[in-house]
Amino acid sequence: MGDVAGHLAELRSELARLGAVAGTLPDDLVVIQVGDLVHRGPDSDAVIDLVDHYIREQPDQWVQLIGNHEAQYLRAPAFRWPQRLKRRSVGTIRRWVHHRAAVVAAAIRTDSEDFLVSHAGITETFWREVLGAPPTAQAAADTLNDLLTKHDDRIFRAGVMLGRQDPCAGPLWAEPVTELIPGWLDTPLPFSQIYGHATVNDWVDPVSLPPALRGRITSDPAAKHEFIDVRGGRLIGIDPGHGSHPVIPWRSFEVRGDAA
Description:
The protein is an alpha/beta fold. The protein has one domain (about 10-260): Purple Acid Phosphatase, chain A, domain 2, CATH 3.60.21. Helix content is about 25%, strand content about 15%. It has helices at about 10-15, 45-55, 70, 85-100, 125-130, 135-150, 175-185; strands at about 30-35, 60-65, 100-105, 105-110, 115-120, 190-195, 215-220, 225-230, 235, 260. Helix 2 (about 45-55) runs parallel beside helix 4 (about 85-100). The chain starts with 7 loop residues before the first helix and ends with a strand. The model has no long low-confidence stretch (mean pLDDT about 95).
């Protein structure tokens, strides 16, 4: 599930589409939410409460990832934002992280493809220099989550979105066009990646594609998903781009496999 951005009605609607009834997820569904649950929309605290319900009641079926907006409440804020969560919600996010109910990354294995899921994706430089070039999505996710437990600053490393392009921008901050995608145009992906945070496409105001991506990228405007084909796998962006008002329509990206 892509960025929710404080839109409770949109979250409830999408969970209902996925089969949730009366606050219960169906037995065959695992939700991996890519972070940025909060800010922009009007109901961030209620979104946190709803997600906390699923984490408490069905902890094996809700995998919560940390986005750069949740990170605002885990350390000194990296940027100014006009909206602030209530103290209760801040405590909830910190409790999730303390008990590893919220992590940086998850891995999905299918019969034909492995996926690393994170908020912003991992750049080739970050994969190689920080993670030590793990060959599998599971190994990458384990290392990323261990770095979070150690409060490693590299997890929170920002790049062009906070003013300076950085090929080693971390998994909460990598910008797709300038930081995430370029390194993987020259180096084969060891596994596919699914991420939120931002997309190449602006779903509200379409932009022309960078020359390097022409012929490599396809999109599903109804779902708000984009697919960048590179050697070794795919980079799949699923951020619907909600602002103060939700972007409609949108859907979660559905995969049949095993999540960990």
